[in-house]
Amino acid sequence: HICAGGNRVHVTYRASDGNGGIRSASISGTTLTFAAETVWASNFGYASGGQDLMDSTIQVGRIGGCYDLSADRYLTLYANATESSYLYAVVSQLTDANTGAMTWGTPVVVNSATSDVYARGVQYDSSTSRCLVTYKDTASGTWAAGPGKAKVATITAGTNSVAFGTEAEFEDGGATHINVVEDPNTDRMLI
After folding, report:
1. Per-residue pLDDT tens for 79-137?
2. Residue 190 burial (CB < 10 Å; 0-12/13-18/19+)?
3. FRET label pair with 108: which of 57, 76, 91, 140, CA 20 to 30 Å apart?
4. pLDDT over 80 at 49, yes or no
5. 173/123: higher pLDDT
6. Do the beta carbons of residue 13 and residue 77 sit within 8 Å?
7. Which residues contact 184 (CB under 8 A, 6 or more apart)?
């Protein structure tokens, strides 16, 4: 997943070994210069180059995320494959652009049921200074028949904590490859 913010480009990913990672790049003209990789080692375990324990037992499923411009933080969602693919979210902040070091909040459960998140299914809404999180809830049926759901995420300014609003269903079955875009001309989010 790629997002931009804080005059940088950020790439989050899941490696073939189950670890999550993030790399941040500065932009000069048409040249990207990447800082060191921050690996969520031990299957999404240690953030900030091994300094901050998040959860050393998690296998990462799909990842989605966005940069919250007003909070100057990143919101990353992931399916926790170790815990029946429940949907989790964690807030992070780039603390050293040269090394790529990040500080992390505490992961929180977004949906305590089997879920699927898509890279472009999370979007910052500049008109409300919040993020829209979309996902597929596959616990209520087969993967193909899972309904599409959404929640609004609000990152607390100056912290790495996030709160979620009430869940809303936008598709009653078969939601897949969910994308969210902001229409700045109408102050609306399109799913």
Report:
1. 777 777 788 888 888 887 777 677 888 888 998 888 877 767 888 898 899 998 888 88
2. exposed
3. 140
4. no
5. 123
6. no
7. 126, 127
26 in Cβ contact with 33 (< 8 Å): yes
pLDDT in tens, 2-16: 666 667 777 777 666
Scan for tokens 């009653």, then name that residue.
172
What is the average pLDDT score of the chain? 75
- The Cα 45–Cα 101 span in angstroms is 15
Tokens read off for 88? 């989790």
Dist CA 85 CA 94 (whole Å): 27
* Torsion angle defined by CA atoms of residues 86, 68, 189 and 145, in that order, rounded to the nearest 10 degrees: -10
For residue 163, give the amino acid letter: A
**Whole-angstrom Cα distance, residue 152 to residue 108?**
14
pTM here is 0.70
Write down the pLDDT at residue 166: 93
The SS3 call for residue 154 is: strand
- 49: nearest Cα among 67, 88, 23, 15: 23
End-to-end CA distance of the chain: 17
Place of tokens 């500065």: 26
